[in-house]
Each structure stands twice: as C-alpha cells, then as structure tokens.
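Write out this protein's structure.
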Amino acid sequence: MALGQNHTTVTRFILLGLTDQADQKQLLFAVFLLIYSMTLVGNLGMIDLIRASSALHTPMYFLLSVLSFLDICSSSVFTPRLLISFLTTDQSISFAGCVAQMALTVLHGAGECLLLAIMAYDRFVAICRPLLYHTIMSKRLCVQLVMVTYAMGVFFSALQTGNAFILPYCGPNIIDHYFCDIPPVLQLSCSDTTVANVILFFFSALVTVPTVSVILVSYTYILVTIYRMRSLEAQRKAFSTCASHLTALSFFYVPLFLVYVQLNPESASAYNKILSVLYTIMIPMLNPLIYSLRNKDVKAAVQVRVLNLSRKGIC
C-alpha cells in the first residue's frame, strides 16, 4: 500500500543472521542443532524427573520445572528459524511472522525474569524462614505466582510489541540480526523513534530493575543468615542450594541488561548478536546442567529414575 510517492509499506523483513559466509554456515548448523537437541533433552528430562520423583515434589522444583518449560518455549522461538537460515538462501520473514516472533521473545524474556525473582524469594523463605516454608510457599501460591508470571509476560509483550509496530515501516527492511529483536527493528522505522526508544528503555527497566531488586534483597538476607549459622555443614548445604541459582542469574541478566537496558539502543551493533545468543540459545541449554550438577537431590533422583527405567526395560 502506497504511503507516498517513493514509499511503500514493508511486507517482509530480511534477517541477515549470524553470518553470510557459506563455509561457516554448515559448521554453525551442526553446532546449533546440537545445542537445540541438548536443550530439548535436558529440559524435557528435568520436567520428567521432577514429575516422576516424589522427593522433588517441592515448591523449588515445581518452579524449576516451569523454568524448564519456559526455556523449551524460548529456545524454540529462535533456534529452528536460525537453523533454517543456515540451509537456505531465503532469509526473509513475513511482517506478521516478525510481529509474532517479537511478541513471543518479550513474553518468554519477561516471564523468565519474573520467575527467577520468584525462585530467589523461594530460596529466601527456605533458608531464612525454614519453619514457615511449606506454609508460605504453598502449592496454591506457587500456581498463582506462575499464573501472574504469564499474565505479566503477556502484558509486557503486548506493550513492547505494540510500541515497535505502531510505527510505520516504509523503507529499508534488512534486520542486522538473526531474529526480530526490538532495537534493530526500530532502526528500520521511517519515522522518529526517540519516543519508542524511551518506552523500550522504560518498560525493559520496569521488568528487570524490580526483579533484580527482589533477587539482591533476597540473597542479601540469605548470605547474612548463612554467615550466622554455627555449623559449617549447614552453611555449606545452604550455600550449595543457592549457588546454581546465582550462576543461572548471572548468565541470564548480564547479557539481557547489556542488550536492552541501554541509553542508546541504536548504537547496538554486531556484539548484540553474541549477547543475544547467550540468553536466547545458550542459557536454555545450560540451565538443566547448572541446576543438576551441584544438586544432590537431583543426582539421586536421576539414579533412581534410570534404575527404574532399566528395570522396566528388562521386564
């Protein structure tokens, strides 16, 4: 549809992807296919393990199973499309497809931020209020918190996606990224994006700053409580339950802050692709490993699960 003499509405975008070198695409396809396979196997395995093991039917592991589900969904938004781009010369995506991809990106990103904050609060209650843990973190409250997480994710997704696509796109359609991320898409608008960038910064900060504040306050109390414990064994056990969560938090929030919470999103360049790969593709693969390698309960549950499956196979 014509917007003027020399402008037409953009109907498709071109995603440049991670590389334009043909000799690198085959190697990258194999690498990212392996990562995606490990993501699916690891997270589906974690969900199945938590479901099948009665010892893991606690609020912490319920929240971890929700995180695994979010990681599967999040990775599936990006990786299959990226794998296809390594095999074909058609790098285009429809306007509607770009809108849907951006909406799902924000939905899962905001949902994971909120869920990680809830998991930090769960650890706070478990270590600082152990006698009241099962009373406070009841099954009903956990389900309600997950429902609120998804509702807030949908809310922020609608706001951020609407903020990006309410602008007119009538000129260039080449996105220097491997998915429809907000900053590179805004750069293609044929109108002034100052207000849109301010809104992007504000709502990105509105998600990340409160959730990080909850995490920092929770872990401040946790560290103080651990320090006051007289038993070294109790200190070690309490800290080990938090170490995996702290590792996952660091891997997720650092690249997320660097990509979205910046004063001048238009200055973002190729390094944003690397940061985006970390929190969209690598973190969903690493989370099951992070939460299982240092967790004795998960290791024990894995052994029991494998033993039961082997017995069924023999029978």
